């Protein structure tokens, strides 16, 4: 399991908003898995924020 990345307060608010929207739309569901992936945010050309996940740690345990 990885530690959470440091995220500025303004991005925390945007991440919480996007996660709430995804939960309401049922694109994601709550989990109690011991594995976790960090959230990364990227500024899009229209100055909105795109949220993504850093799966490098999870991929290091994936058996191909």
Observed structural traits:
globular; two-stranded antiparallel sheet; single chain; HIV Type 1 Reverse Transcriptase, Chain A, domain 1; 31% helix; alpha+beta; 64 residues
Strand arrangement, major sheet: 1-2
Write down the CATH class. Alpha Beta
- Give, in order, the helices and strands: HEEH
Number of helices: 2
Q: Mind describing the biggest β-sheet?
A: 2 strands, antiparallel
Count of extended strands? 2
Task: Tell me what the CATH architecture is.
Answer: Roll
Distance between the termini: 20 Å
Beta-sheet strand percentage? 15-25%
According to CATH, the homologous superfamily is HIV Type 1 Reverse Transcriptase, subunit A, domain 1
| Helix percentage | 25-40%
Q: What is the domain total for the residues?
A: 1
Oligomer state equals single chain
What structural category do the secondary elements indicate?
A: alpha+beta
State the low-pLDDT regions, or none: none
- Output the radius of gyration: 13 Å
What is the general shape?
globular
Give the CATH topology. HIV Type 1 Reverse Transcriptase, Chain A, domain 1
